[in-house]
Amino acid sequence: MNQKQHVVIIGGGIIGTACAHFLTEANFQVTVVEKGSFAEGCSTGNCGLVCPSHVLPLAEPGAILNALKSMFQRNSPFRIKPRLDVSLWSWFAAFAKHCNKKDMLAAGHAIQPLLAQSLTDYCQLVESNVVDCEYQQQGLLFAYKSAAAFESYAATNELLRNTFNEPAERYVGAELNELEPALKENLAGGWYYHEDAHLRPDKLLASWRKSLTDKGCTFLENQTVNDFQKNNDSAVAVRTSTSEISADHFVVATGATSPEWAAWLGFPIPIQPGKGYSLTMPRPQTCPKIPMILPETRVAVTPMESAYRLGSTMEFVGYDDSISDERLRLLTDGVQDYLIEPVTSPIERKWFGWRPMTSDGLPIIDRSKILNNVWLAAGHNMLGLSMAPATGRLVTDLITGRSPSVDPRPYAHRR
Ligand SMILES: Cc1cc2nc3c(=O)[nH]c(=O)nc-3n(C[C@H](O)[C@H](O)[C@H](O)COP(=O)(O)OP(=O)(O)OC[C@H]3O[C@@H](n4cnc5c(N)ncnc54)[C@H](O)[C@@H]3O)c2cc1C
Questions:
Q1: Above 80 in pLDDT, residue 50?
Q2: Which of 219, 331, 347, 367 could bond 310 through an S-S bridge, CB–CB 3.0 to 4.6 Å?
Q3: Domains and CATH numbers, the chain
């Protein structure tokens, strides 16, 4: 009997876990090595939105001007901590270059297959009881207070309808309250995407880990992978803080801290941490049924079955792990004008995560130029949960050499 090939995955977040799933399905022996506790990086307290409607990247025409303006606004959800950091400013220079319609559309076309495949995969994972995560397909609503802001979204809707076949339904004034009675009256309107879904990320990851463990996958926690042991142009093992683990293939799925692997991958990994916060609390009595994004305050509202979560902010402040109550107030202040019962108590969890941000909005899924059996899967920006299953599938396709489920070229480090 042939022995199974062994894959070591560095990083126990949603991307590492999704890779573990599809590699296990493909009959590999898989070990996930996590430097902290499993799924305690960016993948646990996020907003839980699985949103194929979000095809457009952050780099869009006008984004740099908006970013500059918000630098001078107190309490803007967007924030840059000015500092002498070459990687930060070269990231912004590259971001600025992508803020044009051509690149925005190209990124949208590249993201869309990962989003679409992932939605299908989540449905199957839920239906086959691999995961148990309060999954609901209630759509996603963009709700607006001001008529001007509401109407200005019509152009984006046209673009999404005509170019990506992602139309939203328009709800004006009172129609919005009929659709979502938890909203206050007198809002201008909303745009509703039917097909989007949401789930509880910590439950998703805990149940996925359990299913994978039952299938023989190993999860090692509190073990930092420091480097590889190599033999010519292949890696033969990873060295962790406490042991050495040999394997046939390796996947680096280390999210926002991935740039530290650049020397082993043989190419730069221009990822910046985009810090965001969430607050988790009990569901209000008048709880929304549809998850929402409030674009005027940039707060996301997720009504999970067992909790209610607000999430927001995009801060380029380096690897800062502090939790600021002042920044958290942006979340609670940002929902006051929209919801009948905007906030509840007690706050069960104050959380931050570092989104792995690339300048063009696309993940990097590619093979090391130095070690031919090492792969990077990182840089999923604001959509790691929404793109994870398709990423795991693609990484498995690339390692096995089978025909890839989506075209991998847009995710190559040089694109
Ligand atoms: C406020 C907020 C809301 C969000 N909402 C959504 C949403 O609604 N929908 C959506 O799709 N996305 C959302 N995101 C984005 C999403 O959370 C991220 O894109 C995703 O979690 C990235 O997953 P990852 O596995 O790449 O990184 P992580 O979850 O950070 O996992 C990487 C792991 O690697 C480990 N690691 C790093 N270095 C080493 C090492 N040397 N050895 C061992 N382990 C190591 C880390 O400890 C970490 O656990 C949100 C993000 C934030 C901050």
A1: yes
A2: 331
A3: 6-139+195-411 (3.50.50.60)
Helix (H) or strand (E) segment spanning residue 156 = helix 147-164
Q: For ligand 1, which residues put their CB under 6 angstroms from it?
A: 10-16, 33-36, 40-43, 46-49, 224-225, 253-257, 276-278, 311, 353, 355-356, 378, 380, 382-386
**pLDDT over 70 (residue 1):** no
Residue in 255, 282, 289 with CA at minimum distance from that of residue 269: 255
Q: Provide, rounded to the nearest whole percent, the portion of the chain with pLDDT above 70.
A: 100
Query: pTM (2 decimals)?
Result: 0.98
Residues 275-284 have pLDDT tens digits of: 999 999 999 9
Q: What is the dihedral of CA 107, 108, 110, 115, to 10 degrees?
A: 140
Is residue 74 over pLDDT 80?
no
Closest residue by CA, ligand 1 atom 50: 46
pLDDT of residue 73: 81
- What is the number of alpha carbons within 13 Å of residue 184 lying toward its C-beta? 14
Distance CA 178, CA 395 (A): 44
| C-alpha neighbours within 13 Å on the C-beta side of residue 181 | 3
CA of 210 to the centre of ligand 1 (A): 19
Alpha-carbon Rg of the chain, whole angstroms? 21
Q: What would the mean pLDDT of 111-132 be, rounded to a whole number?
A: 98
**Ligand 1 center to 256 CA (angstroms):** 7
pLDDT per residue as tens digits for the range 177-224: 999 999 999 999 999 999 999 999 999 999 999 999 999 999 999 999
> What is the CA(360)–ligand 1 centre distance, in A?
18
Amino acid (one-letter) located at 158 = E
378 Cα to the center of ligand 1, angstroms: 9
Rounded to the nearest angstrom, the distance between the alpha carbon of 377 and the centre of ligand 1 is 12
Q: Say if residue 346 is preceded by a cis peptide, omega within 30 of 0.
A: yes
Closest-CA residue, ligand 1 atom 14, reads 382
Region at 222 (left for phi over 0; alpha for psi -120 to 50; beta for the rest): left
Given the CA of residue 225, which atom of ligand 1 is nearest to it?
42
In the reported structure, the alpha carbon of residue 203 is separated from the centroid of ligand 1 by a whole-number distance in angstroms of 15
Q: Ligand 1: which of 10, 47, 312 to mutate, most ligand atoms within 8 Å of CB? A: 47
